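Usage

Read records sequentially. Each one opens with the input sequence:
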Amino acid sequence: MKTLSIILLVAIIAANIECQFRSPIDSFKEINQHLDSTNTINWYNLAGIELVVTQNFIDTVQKLKRKIIESSGGWIDKNGKRHTDGNWSNNLGTLYNDANLKSSTKLMVEQGNGKMLYHLIQDTRNQFLHLIVDSIDRSNLSQQIPLGIPVGPKIITDSTWTARNFEQVPVIAVLTLFSKFESDAINSEHILKHYFEEKLHHEFPDSLKSEKRK
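and closes with the structure output:
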């Protein structure tokens, strides 16, 4: 029963990642491969799911980055030409209006993307933790995984978190926060990858390393 619960749990995670799995049936076929004939977890497959969970999170944050850059006026390249798209990075030039306060408020607060991100962070963290089958290991690693909503003496709701981080906040500060979330996701992935490698007693092949992420 415990093994079946593990299979069901990871299958649900996999079924929600459209870019990796086509249907719930395909997901169950994939998860069945997590157990070999001796009921040993297939750490390679779990690591593969881990990479997809991370990429799904990063893709969403990248979309928010582009939207807020576009809505604040774009960016100016090193030749002084203005670009209205959101495909900016520090090495390309400077933001057109990095002190803009309205864009972050409109995109993240008024349009509900702040609440969406709040729940995405929590969901992604939970997906990472659910990949750790052993409950003791999961409890220990939960203290190390950096991606998550800060826990304090008072419960932080999605509305409170959104207002605190995005309402009347300069675009440059929001972009910096987005980059931190991406970094937290990648560092969380690295922690899990190291854990899986310890279980296997050797490193993963290059195809399962985040450095190969497209």
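Summary fields computed downstream for this record:
- Strands lie at 75-77, 82-83, 93-95.
- The CA atoms of residues 99 and 170 lie 5 Å apart.
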